[in-house]
């Protein structure tokens, strides 16, 4: 199969998959509103089709010196009804369009959250953000702004052609013959729109990814004085977005006016033909006026249908990207066990694990951590310490062997239940731009204030929290930027302790402490670790004093 054929084959399957997985479930609750909008559009089209006929009747009456009073009021009423329907339709369409985009975006976000970390690690954040914002917006506008009006457009087109055929068969046949030629030209143009749409979305994703990366690393950028360099890099990405969008807009924007001009020229040409027929008494003047007006009515639907084709081609890039994301399989969550064993050993039995595209990390790894034991893991970066933790949390899955708690395979636990009963204090503390209370209670939004304060006291965080301007209601900024490194670590420990986990993981939890703060933190931890199974990842001798056993990993092996 050639590349072109493969692309075509892939695209042919993109729309059905995306519509089935994402759009149809979202569309179903809104079907009554969509049907209402469709009916309003059809009534509006009927009012449009009636006006050229009335114009012809009025012309014939003028030629016969007859009064036009009733017809004028009727025409005025039709115009008012048409515009009123247009306003109501626009409001309804905006309501349905906004709701569809919000619902589809929420469904997609939930799916993205359910995907394994490997999927996200293989992509730039900007690519994922483009799915949620650019692609969802484009598809939402395509459904409500292109697909939904398609039936009224066809109704207007067929109705106008039918009236022309009734009034002037020769002219109607000529118009019908010219239209396929026009759409063939549009198809050739459409082939160019699809890659341009994809390039536009990709350029936006790259710019978004760079902006997010730089804002997260702003302190480093300032420390190294590289603001001009980063400004230039962002300008380069912004110019790429501008150029990609401009290329797309030139092709998309040129279709409608080109069709309109060509259509108007054809109508004027046919008007000349009709004029000759009037002169030769083959047609009444009123019929010629009606044919002319129906020809002008045709120009709108033909131009809009041209935009339908162009929009469809432009949407294919977004559909393909969404389909790729929706085809990705979420984390396997087939377990039924809800509760971890109260006193269960953690056992890694014959575990093999390899990251994609890298050498095997673990080969037949065996490790037992007894219930209530504190085990320290040491070793150089890349030795596999964090991977052991990720295996326990099922953030990654072993290719062979298994991990058990109390003799029960981790895959037998419901994923949410497993993770809820394992506390994690990571080296890179993740905090939100919210209050201290909300950060501690993250994952336990129903926690009472007393429980939050108790967890903070256990983590030796209560005193410094009270010293903050608003105490537990103090907003700490993105990633807790308004706190010191040690304070952030204490909040992370309080958040983990609030869950009262059976297993607690401290991943370089004292990395941000000075020696005095580390000793204080260790003393705070002695009490909270006493009744738990603890995995302590650290290189610092003072922290190792907490451990019952110290294990060293080298290149995925225990030594």
Task: Explain what this protein looks like in three dimensions.
It is a single chain. This protein is of the alpha/beta class. The protein has two domains: 16-327, ABC transporter type 1, transmembrane domain (ABC transporter transmembrane region fold), CATH 1.20.1560; 346-558, P-loop containing nucleotide triphosphate hydrolases (Rossmann fold). The protein has helices spanning 3-27, 31-63, 69-114, 117-121, 125-147, 150-167, 169-216, 218-224, 227-279, 285-327, 385-392, 415-420, 436-440, 449-458, 462-466, 485-498, 515-529, 541-544, and strands spanning 346-353, 362-369, 374-378, 400-405, 408-409, 422-425, 503-507, 533-537, 549-554, 557-558. Strands 6-7-8-3-9-10 form a six-stranded mixed beta sheet. Strand 9 (549-554) and strand 10 (557-558) form a beta hairpin. Helix 6 packs antiparallel against helix 7 and helix 9 (227-279) runs antiparallel to helix 10 (285-327). The protein is elongated, with a radius of gyration of 34 Å. The two termini are 52 Å apart.
